[in-house]
Task: inverse folding
């Protein structure tokens, strides 16, 4: 009886295979009879004579275009004041940009003006000191609440 159950489980595990996918970037034109082939029906993208050359050419073209743009790097998550985060997110969303791109542009513009950079740095230091104090307070609250639970 157990062999029968085991065979049933094995048979259920066998799934049908999926057909191999076609390359989505290279459209293939199906051959049509000559009497149906009209200029309006002709596709602008045709399959090249050498199908392996097209993806390589496309990749090379895309890579050369990519080299024209500055390289990006993922940065750590940004922590913002709750109200400021909502305001900045709404501002960027209304203009169809991301917060990260806005910060890049803001830095690019601000870094050209030394007085503005100094003003921003002074505000940043004030906020940094404030964040450090908030962290200390939270840590003290946690330590005191943990010590009161032990007694």
Result:
């Amino acid at each position: 009886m157990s062999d029968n159950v085991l065979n049933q489980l094995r048979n259920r595990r066998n799934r049908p295979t999926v057909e191999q996918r076609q390359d989505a970037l290279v459209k293939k034109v199906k051959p049509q009879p000559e009497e149906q082939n009209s200029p309006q029906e002709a596709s602008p993208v045709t399959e090249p004579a050498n199908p392996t050359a097209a993806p390589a050419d496309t990749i090379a073209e895309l890579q050369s275009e990519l080299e024209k743009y500055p390289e990006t790097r993922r940065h750590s998550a940004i922590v913002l004041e709750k109200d400021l985060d909502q305001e900045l997110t709404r501002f960027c969303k209304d203009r169809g940009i991301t917060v990260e791109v806005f910060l890049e542009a803001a830095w690019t513009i601000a870094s050209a003006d030394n007085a503005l950079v100094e003003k921003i740095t002074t505000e940043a230091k004030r906020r940094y000191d404030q964040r450090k104090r908030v962290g200390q307070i939270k840590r003290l609250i946690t330590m005191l609440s943990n010590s009161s639970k032990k007694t």
Residues 35-48 have pLDDT under 50 and may be disordered. DSSP finds five helices and no strands in the chain. Residues 70 and 104 are 12 Å apart (CA to CA). Helices lie at 2-13, 53-66, 82-95, 99-110, 114-150.
